[in-house]
């Protein structure tokens, strides 16, 4: 059996803002399939290895990749990662060197030490088969696929529509929801629903205005790339922390994998997880894991009174979780 080609894409890169064409994104996929924790910064990509993955055929693959290589380096060699916790934006360049060699049909590239280290060290990541992403025609389909793939274990995710359009680098005309729906969401649905995941979406409204999108994700389970512990390289201490998360969920039975996903979303903050879980107990939540993952992600602590709790001997704050929930969809401004 021919070995499947798999790429790794970290969460911060999935959620980053960048402006790439579909073919330029294909090069990034090949690069993410190539880099390893090997101390190197200069690599070679043999296009021969990937050309048969393109459903449309390999006749123009070399020509298209050559053009995309030049455009990627000269026009789109920058991207932004937003750190909501720090309230900062970090600017990166993809490559310090990128070159297509006509003689052997290969790409040679050099990736900076800081970016490579960041990509390899990011704990939350997804693994996906290139046969899917290389054949999505729309760049929005590729981007949304990565976003949904990272939440396929929970079955749903919610995005503030302004933030989603910012990440996707949509033009101003897409602020009109009807345009955004037809040009981005419907097109992505047509392409992605033929891959290893499928999705549906529902607009979330504040009054008459669409302010968010809820994605419902179905994983076909036809692709089992690697064991979760193996791909994340979980240490014994990380497994111990996951066990603590399972104990917090006293009224629900969750798997170790689900506990690890919640732990990663919270940045390892057991205090936040416990408080979010206790809040959720008072609500009618059908998908407790997905709900908590959404609530703890990019958690910002509001001003609150301090109380003492005997869980792990830390000081517990009384949070306004209803306000935090609304903040996830951008329904109100964050407090300073």
TrEMBL record:
Keywords from the named record: Plasmid
Record InterPro entries: Initiator_Rep_WH1, WH-like_DNA-bd_sf, WH_DNA-bd_sf
GO biological process, one term: DNA replication initiation
Pfam families, A to Z: Rep3_C, Rep3_N
GO molecular function, one term: DNA-directed DNA polymerase activity
The Initiator Rep protein WH1 domain, residue ranges: 11-149
Family listed: Belongs to the initiator RepB protein family.
Protein name: Replication protein, repA
């Amino acid at each position: 059996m021919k070995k499947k080609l798999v790429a790794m894409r970290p969460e911060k890169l999935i959620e980053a803002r960048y402006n790439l064409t579909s073919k330029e994104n294909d090069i990034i996929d090949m690069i993410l399939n190539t880099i390893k924790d090997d101390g190197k910064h200069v690599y070679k990509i043999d296009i021969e290895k990937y050309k048969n993955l393109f459903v449309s055929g390999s006749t123009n693959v070399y020509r298209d990749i050559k053009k995309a290589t030049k455009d990627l380096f000269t026009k789109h060699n920058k991207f932004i990662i937003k750190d909501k916790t720090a309230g900062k934006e970090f600017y990166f360049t993809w490559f310090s060197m990128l070159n297509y060699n006509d003689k052997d049909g290969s790409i040679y590239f050099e990736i900076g030490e800081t970016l490579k280290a960041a990509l390899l060290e990011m704990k939350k990541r997804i693994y996906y088969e290139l046969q899917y992403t290389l054949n999505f025609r729309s760049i929005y389909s590729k981007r949304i696929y990565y976003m949904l793939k990272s939440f396929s274990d929970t079955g749903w995710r919610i995005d503030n529509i302004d933030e989603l359009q910012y990440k996707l680098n949509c033009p101003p005309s897409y602020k009109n929801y009807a345009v955004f729906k037809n040009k981005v969401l419907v097109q992505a649905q047509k392409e992605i629903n033929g891959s290893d995941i499928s999705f549906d979406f529902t607009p979330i409204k504040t009054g008459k205005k669409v302010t968010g999108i809820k994605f419902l994700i179905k994983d076909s389970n036809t692709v089992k790339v690697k064991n979760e512990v193996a791909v994340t390289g979980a240490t014994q201490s990380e497994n111990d922390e996951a066990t603590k998360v399972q104990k917090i969920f006293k009224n629900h039975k969750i798997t170790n994998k689900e506990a690890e996903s919640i732990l990663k979303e919270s940045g390892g903050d057991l205090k936040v997880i416990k408080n979010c879980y206790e809040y959720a107990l008072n609500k009618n939540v059908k998908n407790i894991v997905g709900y908590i993952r959404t609530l703890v992600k990019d958690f910002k602590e509001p001003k609150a009174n301090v109380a003492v709790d005997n869980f792990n001997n830390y000081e517990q704050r009384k949070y306004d979780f209803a306000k935090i929930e609304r903040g996830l969809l951008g329904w109100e401004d964050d407090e300073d």
